[in-house]
Amino acid sequence: MDVGLLGQFVVNGMMLGMMYALVAVGFTLFFGVLDVIKFSHGDVLMVGTFAGFSTYLGLTAIGIDNAFVQLVGVLVVSIASMALLGAIIARYLVLPLKSAPPLNTLLVTLMLGTVLRESIRLFYPDGSNPKHFPSLLPTDAWSFGSFTLRADSVILLIGGLLVIIGVNVLINRTRLGLAIRAVAQDEETAKCMGINFKMIVLLTFALGSGVAAFAGVMNGLYYNEINFGMGLLLGVIGFSAAIVGGLGNIYGAILGGFLFAGLQTLGAVALPFASAYKDVFAFAVIIALIAWRPTGLIAEKTSERV
Amino acid sequence: MTQSLKDKLVILLLAALGTAFMVTFIAIEEQTEIFALLLVAAALIVAAAKFGVIKAISQCLSRNEKLMNGAVIAAVLVVVFWFREDHFPLLMIATVMMYVIACFGLNMQFGYTGVVNFAGAAFFGIGCYTAAVLGDTSVPLLMVIALGGIAAAIIGSILIIPVLRTRGHYAAVVTIAFGLLFRTFLEVNDTLGGPQGLRVPGMNLFGWDFNSNIEISENIELSFYMNYVILALIMVILAFVLMRRIERSWIGLNFDAVRLDETAAACFGIDIKRWKITAFTLGNFLAGTAGALYAMMLGFIAPSNFAFSDSLILVSIVLLGGMGSLWGTILAAGLVVLLPEKLQAIQEYRFLIYAIVMILILLFRPQGILPRGLRAYIPGWRG
Q: What are the TM regions of this chain, as residue ranges (chain A) (predicted)?
């Protein structure tokens, strides 16, 4: 195969992997602190992207057309509003169901995802049609022979990497992270040590949702198109990635995200039959991987309590 | 008047009331009238619950189960014959029945055994596509319905290993991934029609064409949907009997044990894998048969009929009715299918409204509208 095309596939795959990993990190954080799956995560991402898009429209309308200012505005509004939304969801939907069967929490958040999706479709102006997301990043490109590397891809990849590293440092090196890990390990003991359980749960949900909003804006900037249904597939893929990596483990989420993107790219490049089957291939491998390692590649460390 | 005579009168009265309600509900078109009717019905039910009438009625019903089942079938037949000439009401009734069968299948998995399945629409779809592919061959069409179920069961068996090895969230993701995989596969597969879908030939039983109107005499002509309604009703009755028999047998007892506590069940020598496989396969079979008949009735199917949101609707029906509750499933399927069709005003908003109603149900009445009662170990014993 031609080197340029191959390079394109690699960059594209890495971009997808970064987005999936960012979504999967959210799932894994929520599972860590509360042992729940918040399935509306993908739709929160979508709402975040639309919030960013509206900010862009608003800024353009009041006459600010400096791309850098717009980008900062889009990111700040999108991340902040989704962090708030995540905390609200945790407070009013997830925490009240803490002692209910896990299936109920999964269903409630699934339904909440539908509510968010349908609300955007029905109530956002012309929400049922795809929107053109602006390119706010520099569009320079370097060419290496037949392979063209776009500056915006590099910036997005570095940005995504920085967010992942940032979350990792936050979890492993700060007092807040220590509290989150403590709650994840043992809620009762963490409470005894004076950790404000509810506060930590809300902060974790805010953190995860903010990261998802970042992934959503990244998606919009890269593909230049957003629609109300984009969150569902991203959410399911992020969930699968978190599961395959091993729930509750941040490295597992990153591994799972890149693995899924790798499978999709492999499906598109290397499969003998049509590349249209790349998602079928990726999901089939995911099912097989779950059958092989039922609790993920990096297994959960808890033993079963009888 | 003796107790049993009083019970019988109550049941007959209820059946008459239900029939009248259904007929009025399906017949009226005016949006405000439909809202008014629903409000009156809701008010009646709330009032009845307040004064303990519901409790008395449910005790009365559980004492006379056979009579109640018969009365319900008779009521459905009356409603169906009332609309004998109208296509649309019959189509809606038949659709409700097929959803009921598919949801019975999910009930076997979710409600009885606790095996999660978020790919209900996919197994329903396998039945549909089987009907489409086999429809033009010489296979007898009644057999095609059974084959639709068998195909769903066989394809579902691919998932058995991952479903058995995983639990909780991990099992949920297996079925969700399968549902998405199934739909993507249909969309890109050209031999199965791609995104445009396939045409399905109608049912034909021993030379009796289901897709033409039934002419009894010169001035009585029945809608051709009547054929499908009757066939669907027979299938619902069979599925209901199957579900009830299983629930009340030692198989159902094993299912319940597996759902309530796997570890304890295993300690008592119950083969968990065996019962999970049984429930999963049988449930998929039921969904597949419903799908095959549905495809024949609609005459056309496309991948967009089997999206993730459709699987969610099936799950919502099971949860709304109450896990493992057969009457609850029937009631919920009726509500979920008929309400959006009747209330054209909310048609556009139906997914939004489902989702909000489901959230409220899960938060405030997680056991569903007609929760499954406790198992009575000694027949006739009332605690």
A: 15-37, 44-64, 70-94, 153-171, 200-222, 228-247, 254-274, 280-299
